[in-house]
């Protein structure tokens, strides 16, 4: 029996891959767009809908970054509203563990799980930067090294809250006058180096017991955190070799925590471009790449490596001769990816050499080196690729990011999904009501430790 | 002057109703309190009655019969879901009624609440509001474990000062995007005009917030803010709707004179029945079942929809713009409001026959406000 593929859709957030200038591109904030994408995903029997989060508008060169889609809704509020217009689709959202408190977030996720009939999922992220902190009470005090320790304790504290009501605590027997089985339902206490909280949690145990936990960090600490606590990893390794290496690495880590291989799913982010034939799709992909990397965007992306104002350069001209500035604070703020350039000077030299060898302009070079479409081809080719990557253990499935909303998933739903269903690697009907059911994850038993006194 | 304005009518939704024994009524649905269906049915009933809005009550701590902390009673409703999410869950299933969830300002982040209410405004197409609540309870502080809220008059004053700052920050965040900030200008490659986004740069005693919001300005521009009159918070925060608790018509006259908000609503707990004797018997039965009695903050009315209409119209004539009814029993008293009181008021020409606006501000007769930052840039 082949492995079953998991598929999710990511409502694209703030990035340069969304082609907002496409005539089919709709609103990124009107609720109708969210409804449309979610209902398409549900029609295609996807596992879940995914929302990213960023808590401060990005800046570059001291100004708000204006070339990409800017603006997004509140995660919980949109997901709750989507629960009203979908029936089975999982509803997962990114919520930061640095700029929130466990009591509030646990209450929100438990509420979402009740209001959606067991479809909630939480992507725990750990951004810590002081720049984002300027929007919050806690400010930016958290040292980089402390963020996963806070995230781990945050999740542990939330777990205590999720489990604070035993199943069946609400009796609601009006004849006997018994509403609660136990007058201390929801009593909790949790104390560690980050949190010291106690009291009564107000939300009964939710349909899934706990929301599905996703994790999206890539560092060693991030992978360890995922192996210890997550149900699924949202990874950025969607290619065969890198995917297999990542997959093997995180699955190996599970044993340390007494967990089975199938208790943590690996779901890389993936984009796709379809065409009638592979050649058509290739041409469409090239057009989309140019739309994604305009001349202005090419300069801005180059500035993120060079850490200098390069606005005087011609995107159709050669790369700058000067080296990146590594002496100052970074020109781009509120962006996780800038830290990917570990050695900017070496990378710049490599890019320059590559541009000279291929006679590439700035824009052409940036198109070459920046992320590319994961799946490009006819529906059959794409179905083959997806199935192959899952069967060879490069992934357990994918979180697809369309480059146009709200109808950028339609073609995939109509052409690729039926092919995957034909091969018996993707469901034709939902088999259960909850997100845990879709992902093949058990409902956790409440590990209840009732505080005394 | 307010005599000429139409009467506004709202209900406050809370668990199985405001009476602690309400959940034991034959028509109550106590096993459904944590389901979406329960709340959807209630809000649809309010919309059936053409009400202006519902408020959805909430708190950061457990309901209790004691003032100083949670109790361990098993014979009353305990537990509740997050009110903003309940409102969002209902929004796509209703079309006209305003949705005003409670969100607490003590211990929470103005940035999060600002985007949550703005998003509620998007998912409801302009029907969101926000009921501001402070938490002075030590056991609620313990849920966060970060600060001890000082009790006594000074502590309360601090909480109200903080709440006023909080509301100011939320309002600035709602305005931090001008309405036409999204330009999608393919020629220059710009998705937004960043000159139309504004740092709010708020610095106060409890927090500082830089902004702009991550969520564009909500459809109503500024969703209406509601707050209780009692603490003075409504006045400090410049609430659009202030909730008061008059006992009688004289009280109404005194209260109305003190308020500067565009809307002064009276809170009134109601137990209704077509037969006055029966209504009063319901109330007695509820009190008997509960044993401990029922001392709500607001006045309690038990009677027929016709008697209630008389009272509301007297209060309206004395200057109130609206009334928020607190159904003692859900759904029973809500149905009596939407199917008994409302037709009664309509017959007397005192209430709408159809919704005349699609937004909450529209229903309340409040104009869509200009953006404070846009004015700056014009000046
Ligand atoms: C695929 C992917 C998606 C992510 N999505 C978000 C997001 O929506 N919001 C956010 O604040 N961080 C997001 N992150 C950032 C991570 O949570 C984390 O902060 C970052 O990867 C740094 O952690 P690391 O050092 O473990 O990689 C994402 C990371 C990855 C790999």
Automatic annotation (TrEMBL), chain A:
Luciferase-like domain sequence ranges: 22-391
Keyword Oxidoreductase: yes
Short name of any one Pfam family annotated for the protein: Bac_luciferase
N-terminal signal peptide: none
Keywords: Flavoprotein, FMN, Monooxygenase, Oxidoreductase
Gene3D superfamilies found in the cross-reference section: Luciferase-like domain (3.20.20.30)
Gene Ontology molecular function, alphabetical: monooxygenase activity; oxidoreductase activity, acting on paired donors, with incorporation or reduction of molecular oxygen
Residue numbers binding FMN: 94, 148, 219
NCBIfam families: FMN_nitrolo
Record family assignment: Belongs to the NtaA/SnaA/DszA monooxygenase family.
Name used for this protein in its record: FMN-dependent oxidoreductase (Nitrilotriacetate monooxygenase family)
From TrEMBL, chain B:
UniProt keyword annotation of Oxidoreductase present: yes
SUPFAM superfamilies noted in UniProt: Bacterial luciferase-like
Keywords annotated in UniProt: Flavoprotein, FMN, Monooxygenase, Oxidoreductase
Gene3D superfamilies: Luciferase-like domain
One Pfam family this sequence matches: Bac_luciferase
Superkingdom of source: Bacteria
Limits of the Luciferase-like domain: 30-256
Family as reported in the entry's similarity comment: Belongs to the NtaA/SnaA/DszA monooxygenase family.
PANTHER family: ALKANESULFONATE MONOOXYGENASE-RELATED, C2H2 FINGER DOMAIN TRANSCRIPTION FACTOR (EUROFUNG)-RELATED
Name listed for the protein in its UniProt record: Alkanesulfonate monooxygenase SsuD/methylene tetrahydromethanopterin reductase-like flavin-dependent oxidoreductase (Luciferase family)
């Amino acid at each position: 029996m082949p492995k079953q593929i998991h598929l999710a859709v990511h409502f694209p957030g703030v990035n340069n891959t969304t082609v907002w200038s496409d005539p089919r591109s709709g609103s990124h904030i009107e609720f109708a767009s969210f409804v449309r994408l979610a209902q398409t995903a549900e029609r295609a029997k996807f596992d879940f809908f995914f929302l990213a989060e960023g808590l401060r508008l990005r800046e570059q060169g001291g100004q708000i970054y204006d070339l990409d889609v800017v603006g997004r809704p509140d995660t919980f509020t949109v997901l709750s509203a989507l629960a009203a217009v979908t029936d089975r689709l999982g509803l997962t959202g990114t919520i930061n563990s640095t700029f929130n408190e466990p009591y509030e977030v646990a209450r929100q996720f438990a509420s979402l799980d009740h209001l959606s009939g067991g479809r909630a999922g939480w992507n725990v992220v750990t951004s810590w930067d002081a720049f984002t902190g300027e929007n919050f009470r806690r400010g930016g005090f958290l040292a980089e090294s402390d963020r996963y320790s806070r995230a781990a304790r945050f999740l542990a504290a939330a777990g205590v809250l999720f489990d604070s009501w035993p199943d069946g605590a609400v009796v609601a027997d009006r004849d006997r006058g018994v509403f609660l089985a136990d007058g201390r339902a929801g009593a909790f206490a949790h104390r560690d180096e980050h949190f010291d909280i106690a009291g009564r949690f107000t939300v009964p145990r939710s349909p899934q017991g706990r929301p599905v936990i996703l994790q999206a960090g890539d560092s060693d600490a991030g992978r360890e955190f995922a192996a210890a606590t997550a149900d699924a990893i949202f990874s950025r390794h969607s290619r065969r070799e890198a995917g297999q290496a990542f997959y093997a690495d995180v699955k190996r880590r599970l044993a340390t925590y007494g967990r089975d291989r199938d208790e943590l799913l690996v779901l890389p982010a993936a984009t796709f471009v379809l065409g009638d034939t592979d050649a058509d799709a290739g041409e469409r992909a090239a057009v989309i790449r140019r739309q994604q990397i305009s001349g202005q965007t090419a300069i801005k992306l180059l500035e993120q490596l060079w850490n200098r104002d390069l606005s005087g350069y011609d995107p159709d001209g050669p790369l700058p001769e000067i080296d990146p500035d590594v002496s100052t604070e970074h020109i781009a703020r509120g962006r996780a990816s800038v830290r990917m350039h570990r050695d900017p000077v070496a990378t710049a030299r490599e890019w320059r050499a590559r541009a000279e060898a291929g006679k590439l302009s700035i824009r052409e070079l940036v198109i070459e080196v920046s992320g590319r479409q994961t799946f490009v081809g006819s529906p059959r080719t794409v179905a083959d690729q997806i199935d192959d990557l899952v069967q060879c253990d490069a992934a357990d499935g994918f979180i697809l990011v369309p480059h146009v909303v709200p109808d950028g998933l339609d073609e995939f739903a109509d052409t690729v999904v039926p092919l995957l269903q034909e091969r018996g690697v993707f469901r034709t009907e939902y088999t259960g009501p909850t997100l845990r059911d879709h992902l093949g994850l058990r409902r956790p038993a409440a590990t209840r430790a009732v505080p005394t006194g | 002057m307010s005599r000429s304005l139409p009467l506004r009518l709202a209900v406050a939704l809370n668990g199985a109703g405001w009476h602690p024994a309400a959940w034991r009524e034959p028509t109550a649905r106590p096993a459904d309190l944590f389901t979406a269906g329960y709340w959807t049915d209630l809000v649809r009933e309010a919309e059936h009655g053409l009400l202006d809005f519902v408020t959805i009550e909430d708190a950061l701590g457990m309901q209790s019969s004691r003032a100083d902390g949670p109790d361990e009673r098993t014979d009353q409703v305990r537990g509740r879901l997050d009110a903003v999410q309940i409102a969002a869950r209902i929004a796509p299933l209703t079309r006209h009624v305003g949705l005003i969830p409670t969100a607490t300002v003590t211990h929470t982040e103005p940035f999060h609440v600002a985007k949550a209410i703005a998003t509620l405004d998007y998912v409801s197409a302009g029907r969101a509001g926000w009921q501001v609540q402070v938490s002075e309870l030590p056991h609620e502080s313990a849920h966060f474990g970060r600060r001890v809220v000082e009790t006594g008059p000074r502590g309360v004053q601090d909480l109200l000062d903080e709440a006023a700052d909080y509301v100011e920050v939320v309002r600035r965040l709602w305005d931090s995007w001008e309405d036409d900030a999204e330009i999608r200008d393919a020629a220059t490659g710009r998705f937004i005009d960043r000159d139309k986004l504004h740092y709010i740069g708020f610095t106060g005693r409890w927090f500082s917030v830089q902004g702009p919001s991550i969520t564009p300005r909500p459809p109503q521009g500024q969703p209406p803010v509601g707050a209780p009159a009692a603490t003075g918070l409504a006045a400090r925060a410049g609430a659009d709707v202030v909730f008061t608790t008059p006992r009688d018509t004289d009280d109404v006259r005194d209260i109305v004179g003190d308020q500067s908000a565009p809307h002064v609503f009276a809170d009134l707990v109601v137990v209704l029945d077509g037969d006055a004797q029966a209504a009063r018997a319901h109330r007695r039965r509820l009190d008997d079942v509960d044993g401990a009695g029922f001392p709500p903050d607001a006045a309690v009315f038990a009677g027929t929809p016709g008697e209630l209409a008389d009272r509301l119209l007297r209060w309206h004539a004395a200057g109130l713009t609206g009334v928020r009814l607190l159904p003692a029993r859900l759904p029973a008293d809500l149905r009596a409001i939407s199917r008994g009181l409302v037709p009664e008021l309509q017959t007397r020409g005192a209430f709408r026959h159809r919704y005349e606006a699609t937004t909450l501000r529209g229903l309340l007769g409040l104009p869509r406000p200009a953006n404070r930052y846009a004015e700056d840039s014009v000046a």
